[in-house]
Structures are given as structure tokens and as C-alpha cells.
Specification:
485 residues; two-stranded antiparallel ribbon; disordered N terminus; single chain; alpha+beta; 19 helices
Amino acid sequence: MPRPSNAGRSPGETGSDGLSARKGRRRRSVAVVGSIALGGVVAMSYQMASGAPAVSTPAVSINPVTAQVAVSGTAAQRKLSPKAANQKLLDDGKRYFRRSTFGDQKFWGGTLDLDRAIEGAANGGVGPGLSPAAALGAGLKVDVKALPKRLKKALAKGKVNLNSPATTLALLKLDSVVGVKGYFNKSGNLTTVGIRCALCHSTVDNSFAPGIGKRLDGWANRDLNVGAIIGMAPNLQPIADLLHTDVKTVKAVLDTWGPGEFDAQLLMDGKALRPDGGAASTLIPPAFGMLGVNQSTSTGWGSVTYWNAFVANLEMHGEGTFNDPRLDDADQFPIAAENGFGHTKAKVDRITPKLAALQAYQLSLAAPKPPKRSFNKAAAKRGKALFGGQAACSTCHVPPLFTEPGFNMHKGEEIGIDNFQADRSPTHMYRTAPLAGLWTHKKGGFYHDGRFASLNDVVKHYDTTFGLHLTEAQQKDLVQYLLSL
């Protein structure tokens, strides 16, 4: 993918993860301890290394008959037992999901200057900076396990200044902000910033405080205001140039996205609004419960591996290889076709070697079970009978996958909705969504674009569309069953 030009910028330093860190910019070192009252907790000893270590990924093949795993690579890797090889694959995938930027810091920091907006003028950047209070308000999450004990005690006692961007920098040095990686030089100054898969597809359990807790991988972050975060970047001109518009328009489009929304097709087709004038963005989906599911997105662009490659290359702006000649269709995908997005090849591929492990880890993420007493068991039992009987839900949502085994795509008219989002994909169809874990993403509404505010609304829609003639009580029972999945 051709990248927005960096002409006129200072040359970069190259780290082990392909980091292009700007030099020459005059920065003021952040005196973290004195300014945010961490009591010596976040000192220079907690600073993260400027680059992530290189990772050697073994090639893994699975015998379809015996299910035995063969690992090629170093001598040590070849000595792994099948069980150990499988575990290593999952461990690698987990690390990539949580930690890898795929080299995208060259774009988010090196091109858009997002790191400067995070710092703020007081710390060598621009503007007011991003305080922890503002970051949490924008839906960013903090991994409590990454926080030292003394810091957690200080936070619990209210002795940490959550309104200071310097505190955000300290949290980035601890690598505690879920899905965001800050790169710091030897002087402790932020040089660039990258994003990770976990930014959108993880949240926390709020066990320490709202927005601070243990990671929940695979959960959709329906609090994350992606548009507001991107809109902070001082240099949005490269995006404006790509879309053949101006920065003011780009900001206006980003403002139409609400919490938990993102438009993955915008940089493919340039469509910012639906025909009715509403935002063209869709809800961030969960990344769990995908084992056995044919298509991984609501409009069926492709498998888990396809979508990982698509997002890492074209949305996160990492450095890798991506091929999809369907994007050459200039009528449907004018932006993608013009820029050759369907034929992306970086000099150093930091994405493709990680796809197998990423897929294995994501497919291992089962949909979480609903909390106890979160639904009416008796009503759910009656709803289950309706699901497989009068309501005929199981015709398409086939248990235990809760989608069709095999081809699971439908035209909008088959399910009583418009084809706008379907027609933005190569399939021109909608996937039958798997239903397990529905209770985790009630925030923001249901369907790909949140058009139905509640499950009750979804059931009413199908009752009308298919003429099911369910009573009000039956509809409520069906909702309780859906909440039990």
C-alpha cells in the first residue's frame, strides 16, 4: 500500500521492530515522579525499551488425519512435542494480538504525529495533551496487571494526577494502555506511537476501577471512540489527500463515529454516509466465538486470517503483504483501486509470519458464558424451544455454531434490511451472525450498525419480517434464551 508521503520530515532511527523514530525534534524530558505524585513508583527503571525484540515464528503444519503438529524452525523448536507446539502457537498468537504493532508506528506517530497530541505542549508535543481521564473517557483501557503495586495503591488513594498528560506518558512507559504502544528514547521522551489488535478487540473487567482491570481478549471495546482518537492527530492531511478532500471534512466524518464504531470501508470506497444521511460506520465486533464460523465479518469479506491481513495492512497501516484483486474494482472501491491496496507488499513483511499464530489464538477465544442470575432460566428454557420451533431461528442460527455450517450469507431482503453495508463488501451479502456471547455487546445496539437498540427490537423485527406471530410473552422468552448463550 502506498503510504502518505513523509517528505520534508527528519530521518528516523530504526529499531528492532522497524521503528522509525523521529530525531531532531526538541523535546523536554518528562519529570514524571515529581509532577504526578507517584511516590517514586514510575521512575526511569520502568521505562520500556524503544523497540520490541525480534520474534522467530516456527512454521507449523497439522496432519489432517492424526492431528499431529509438525514444527519446522530451529533445532529447539523441532524438538517440541505436538502439545508443546500447539501451546507455543497459541502463546505466540496471544503475544502478537496484545503486543504487535506490525510496524504501524511509522504511520500513527511518524506520519500523523498522534504521539505529539498525546504528549501535549507541556511535554514537547502540541496542544493540551491526552490525560488519563480523557483517555478513559475516550474508551481506552488500562491493564491492571501491568501496574506496579505502589502505583495501584497510589491510584486507590487518589494520589495520582489523572488530569495530567504526563501521567498518560507514565502509563505508556509501563506498557499498560491496552492496544497502544509508546516508544521512548533514552532521555525518556515519547518518539512515536503504534496501535495493536487489542485496541478494538479487547476490553477490561473494571475490577480495579472503571476502565482499569484485567484484560478480556476478544471482547468488542464498545466504549472506544476511534474517531475522536484519530481526530486528535495533528497531521490528518495524508488521510484527506487519500480521500480527495480536506482536513475539515475528515474531522467532520470522524466526528460522526460514536463510541464503539469504526468504518473499515471508508479508505476503500470513500463513502462516509449512508443514503439516509447517517454515519456509514459500523459497530466493532467481538473477536471471540469464531471457531467453526465460515466468515469472520458481518458482510463476509473473508476468514479470520483474511481479515487479520486486511486490517493489519490497510487499517492499522502496518508493514506486510496483502492480496485481493477484488479491490481493483474502481466502481465499487475507487480509493482502494487508485492506490493498489489489493496488491500491497512491504520491503520487510512484519505481518504475514504472524498470521497463523494470530488465527490460532483468536479461534481459541471461546464466547464467555453469561454471569449467574443475568437471565431468567425458566424463560430461557421456553425460549430455547421457540428458537428451534415456532420462531425457526435455528434454521439459520444452527446450534452449536449458531450460524450456518458452510455458506452463511444472505441478501438484505432475505432478512428484511437494506443492502447498503452489504454492497460495500465484495460479497454484497450479510453473514448469519453467531449468537454466543450476545450478552457482552449489548452496548451500542445490535446488528452490524446497531440499528436495533435491544434484543427485544431484533426479535420484533424478525417476528414482523417472517410473520412468526409470536406473542409478547414468547418474544420475551426468546430474548432470555439469547441472553443465556
